[in-house]
Structure to design on (630 residues):
């Protein structure tokens, strides 16, 4: 097990190095790095000083080494727009994104698994068909448009919920959060629902497909032959067998929720990392873009690693296959 | 679609029926899927003949009148025509703008899917057939790429490459090829061990001919399903990028751009500028997904009784 974790960690490190090379190549090598890294509004003298300071006149491998040294010590450059270190800007925005992503994931899991089980057990009933039709709709609705429609109905027409921002935040262990106050919940409701819809549809379909395949298996027939109640067969035998892939997907999808929050945050003006990225792309604030990409890649690699390890803990067969291969 | 060659020997084979006829019959058995197919056909047709059926050419400035700006659906214009879906901030008929936008959205989706299919299919087949280093390298790249969500890769590429129609298509192709490569490799690995491939090898046929004439047709069913889903995904992703202001330029107004255009008027209750292009986008994606869903069930041997 320890060997497996060490090997997987080394693989992850390799991916991170590869991605840093890609981002470096993208930002420093393609196009003119002077235009990318130095504020275009700077004066000529200022530009020359900055070129020398950033070492842009030195060979590429040396520049990469400087870039990595900076990244390792947490220095990913300063934002042109905010004039603060890019990394601290992102870290500042991270709690808002994580709060939104967690709320969305909770909605998706708490509704998705029961609905998917129902649709899987009774695929031909009216309820089962309605759930599946709903999930196709959930897959097909573009996130940004659903967000607009939520604003239109609940903010403009009904006037029940606020359409933008995070509302007042309160401190929890020094981190600003929304979910401690009613007003915070009201601000969280629409964006979290918006972000949850796609994952809800995914979980419904995954649970349904797993249930349908599990119901044909011998162990289910055996459990029924033993005379177990329907509820017990489904909630104990079927559910525990389909839970492994579902847990994996929930883990992996958490990362994708953070990425998709880019869209939801833009629609609802939620002050998270995603909105920061879009604002930075629009204002050509390159150091922030680079910092965001490296941070999100690191988050993804950590999540993938955690899920893989969790998977091998949950399902011993995976570990055995890995050890052989 | 032509019938896949080679022995299939599925339990679901009914006597005297070709696989294509069986698949068609199974597909038509689901009225919802047929509805999706008909809807999709209508949408594609409308997009193709948009210049013939649109009430006005929305990008001919001579036909626009600023007096008609932001009229609600059903209003009558100064020159006598009716704006069934209202007008945008420049007095443009929304119905015409949507029909033209549909053309652009569908074209971008179809072109990027086709290019990605070509690249993914070739690499996936070659990886499965050749094995060794080629396979390891290609599949590692696929693994890494598929562990990141599409929207993130698209944003990285747009941030690095810059904006423009060609770059959006390049981003969509870069995202999609991996899905095809993985799917076709999986199918080809199974097919490669079958006897007809061995027979072809014994006949000393050239490898490229074995790969493309014998392996490929038998790997098509899962690929068709993935390609259908991916067209819808590509259209949705392009719309999202355009909405965020990072997609197509203002000269190529796709549905996403139309929706973004109406965003600022939404809060003052002028819903139609964003609402109707969204409905068009939604209907397109739903109809493609309905077709894909049924194709998945029809082409999946595990669900055949």
């Amino acid at each position: 097990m320890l060997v497996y974790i060490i090997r997987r960690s080394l693989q992850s490190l390799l991916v991170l190095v590869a991605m840093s090379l890609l981002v470096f190549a993208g930002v420093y090598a393609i196009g003119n790095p002077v235009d990318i890294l130095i504020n275009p509004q700077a004066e000529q003298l200022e530009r020359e000083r900055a070129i020398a300071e950033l070492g842009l006149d030195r060979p590429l491998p040396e520049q990469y080494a400087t870039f990595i040294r900076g990244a390792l010590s947490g220095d990913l450059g300063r934002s042109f727009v905010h004039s603060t270190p890019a990394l601290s800007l992102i870290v500042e925005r991270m709690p808002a994104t994580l709060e939104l992503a967690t709320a969305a994931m909770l909605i998706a899991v708490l509704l998705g698994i029961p609905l998917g089980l129902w649709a899987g057990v009774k695929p031909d009933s009216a309820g089962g068909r309605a759930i599946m039709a709903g999930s196709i709709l959930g897959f097909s609705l573009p996130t940004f448009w659903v967000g607009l429609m939520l604003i239109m109905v609940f903010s403009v027409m009904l006037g029940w919920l606020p359409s933008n921002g995070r509302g007042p935040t309160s401190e929890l262990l020094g981190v600003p959060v929304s979910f401690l106050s009613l007003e915070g919940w009201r601000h969280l409701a629409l964006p979290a629902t918006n972000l949850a819809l796609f994952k809800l549809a995914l979980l419904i379909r995954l649970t349904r497909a797993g249930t349908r395949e599990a119901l044909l298996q011998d162990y289910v027939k055996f459990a029924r032959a033993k005379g177990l109640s329907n509820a017990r067969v489904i909630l104990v035998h079927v559910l525990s067998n389909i839970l492994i892939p579902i847990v994996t997907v929930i883990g992996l999808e958490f990362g994708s929720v953070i990425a998709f929050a880019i869209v939801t945050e833009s629609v609802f003006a939620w002050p998270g990392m995603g909105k920061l990225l879009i604002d930075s792309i629009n204002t050509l604030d390159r150091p922030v873009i680079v910092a965001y990409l490296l941070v999100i890649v690191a988050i993804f690699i950590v999540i993938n690693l955690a899920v893989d390890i969790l998977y091998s803990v949950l399902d011993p067969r995976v570990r055995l296959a890995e050890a052989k291969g | 679609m032509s019938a896949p060659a080679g022995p299939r020997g599925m339990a679901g084979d009914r006597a005297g029926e070709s696989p294509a006829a069986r698949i068609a019959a199974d597909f038509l058995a689901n009225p919802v899927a047929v509805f999706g197919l008909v809807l999709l056909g209508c949408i594609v047709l409308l997009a193709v003949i948009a210049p013939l059926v649109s009430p006005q050419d929305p990008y001919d400035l001579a036909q626009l009148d600023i007096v008609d700006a932001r009229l609600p659906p059903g209003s009558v214009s100064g020159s006598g025509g009716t704006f069934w879906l209202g007008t945008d901030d420049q007095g443009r008929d929304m119905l015409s703008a949507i029909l033209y936008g549909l053309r652009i959205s569908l074209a971008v989706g179809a072109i990027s899917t086709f290019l990605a299919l070509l690249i993914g299919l070739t690499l996936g087949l070659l990886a499965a057939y050749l094995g060794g280093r080629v396979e390891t390298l290609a599949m590692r790249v696929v693994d890494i790429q598929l562990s990141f969500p599409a929207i993130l890769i698209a944003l990285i590429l747009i941030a690095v490459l810059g904006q423009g129609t060609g770059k959006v298509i390049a981003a969509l192709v870069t995202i999609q090829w991996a899905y095809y490569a993985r799917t076709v490799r999986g199918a080809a690995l199974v097919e490669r061990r079958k006897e007809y491939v061995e027979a072809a090898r014994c006949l000393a046929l050239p490898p490229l001919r074995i790969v493309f004439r014998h392996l490929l047709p038998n790997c098509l069913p899962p690929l068709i399903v993935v390609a259908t889903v991916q067209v819808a995904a590509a259209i949705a992703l392009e719309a999202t990028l355009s909405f965020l202001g990072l997609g197509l330029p203002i000269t190529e107004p796709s549905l996403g751009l139309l929706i973004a255009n109406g965003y600022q008027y939404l809060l003052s209750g002028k819903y139609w500028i964003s609402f109707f292009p969204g409905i068009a986008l939604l209907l397109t994606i739903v109809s493609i997904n309905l077709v894909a869903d049924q194709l998945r069930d029809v082409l999946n041997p595990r669900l055949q009784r």
Notes: Residues 41 and 177 of chain B are 26 Å apart (CA to CA). The longest strand of chain B covers residues 75-76. Residues 1-13 of chain B have pLDDT under 50 and may be disordered. Chain B touches chain A through 39 residues (CB under 8 Å).
